[in-house]
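Hey, can you fold this?
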Amino acid sequence: MISMEAWIWISGCLKFKELKHKLQLQQNMFSCMHSQSEGAVKASFIIAEEIARACRPFTEGEFINNCIEKVCGIVCPAKKQAFANISLSRNTIASRVDELGSDLQIQLKEKAKDFVANSLAIDESADRTDTAQLSVFIRGVDAKFSVTEELLDLRAIHGTTSGQDILSQVEQCVSNSELQWNKLVALTTAGAPAMCGGVRGLVREKHTGENHCIIHQEALYGKVLGMGQVMTVVNKTVNFIRSRGLNHWQFRSLLEEENCVHEDLPYHTEVRWLSRGKVMQRFYDTHNARFMESKQKAIPELEDEKWLSDLSFLCDITDHLNGLNVKLQGRKQLITEMRDSVKAFQMKLRLWEGQMHQGNLSHFPVCQSVSDAVTIPFPTEVDAGKLNTLKVEFSRRFADFERQKINFDLFANPFAVDADTVPVHFQLNSSNCSVILI
């Protein structure tokens, strides 16, 4: 016969096992919920990153969530609740993007501590609310020659945008990022006077090096050709067509009826200088469409064979300049590679100038087509003079490249340079040649 004490002990053991089993079930449930919650948060961050990269509105998250739930209800109904736990509301996406941005800033700040040398590129432009936005990019190199290129900051400038205002914003950006001024070896800007003024102020105050943006300099060359009379007519015509919805629709309909190779005519903007070549080419390809005449806005210049010759030259040369500009763009490019592209283009200018003097338009297809159509002699000598002007302007603006030729050649191919022409401390130690990278 079991005693009362034994019966109480057995009952206690059974109760303990029951409670232990319930606790294990609860722990497993919480563990499963935690795992699902962690996965849902991670998925939310991934989708928020994709929305930010695509520059889509934050409200896109709700649309994506709706699509996911409907797809999962068909493909894997058992997992529908797990996908429903992913929060993709507008506020959540905004919060996720802010957290991702803050994390990237922290990572960049940590990387910047290891930079042996760095350079900044700054540019200013107005947004659609007419607020000046100053973008600051950084390129840094650490002791292992690992190159980092990132957007350092985007700062709004309210009020004036003088050189002192730009300088003040750059100083704040450098200070917030905890960069060291003694490691700043170059500051790249556009050719605008305010930007150059800011650079000069920074040079005098912080004793840094200075150079100007290669791409921006190349974009200024079209202005030295003195062909504003051509661009004025083109811009006026394009604005008339594109600024009115009815005109734009009728123009597109006319191009479609005439089976034109193009379906539309783009705007030209000074901010996006690559658009000039596209606008010029489209304008030439569609200038035979008598749309302006139908609107009682005839363009007399289109009947002027000399003006058409100037238009054809501007079409071809801007196309060549755009090709160079595209080569100079892109991440992880070395200065020596950009120098080679510019030098190759300078050699092309010399070749084209000589061919123009001979009346050879092989590399200027639009000029060739106009030359075959007009009754007057094509002004090859005038265009050769313009090419010479462009060649001289290239040499002037890229004079720094010639002054650094020895250093560029030493870095690009240290075993092909004359040892007597390089600095003494490089003559016997070729492994140090990679220092030119910074």
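Oh, and this one too while you're at it.
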Amino acid sequence: MSTSVNQSEYEKVKSLVLTTISNISIGPTATNVAFMVFSGRAEVVFHLNTYIENKTSVMEAIGSQAHTGGSTFLGDAIKLATSDVFTETNGDRPDAENVVLLFTDGESSADEDVRSSIDELKSKAEVFVVTVTAEVDNSTVDFVASSPSLNHVFRIDAPETANIVRNVTTSETCATIPPVANTAD
């Protein structure tokens, strides 16, 4: 978690993610989940095919993540999702729609990296952004989210967010939960 996201906000993100995971079916022909963080550096915690039939392991891996603080590498996370997560080698299925749930405040240590790489990610996945702090860089958040941003950007504290996230992840999609950054940053 970046320093712009506090421990309480981080715990809200983990809670929403874990609740979401508990409500979906994980399997080779159901939803597959990948998880990334991008605080200090962008890294894939696990790929789409790591826990393909084990919801408990998915939840344990996410639940064990700790708030670490540090700079936010949103651009690197976007590049990594595009080049590493959404590949057939790592479990991307050509017959499944890809969804990214990005938890962030929109802050980034290198805005140019975000702007130069987001279009490629949007060509592979529908990007939903859940903002996690009171202070949000709305221009970055709106730019990163799929269009129209009104239908793709939500506040973590908004009452409807949990239902929206559940609906997004229970449709016939391959859900990826990358950058729990800036929120899991």
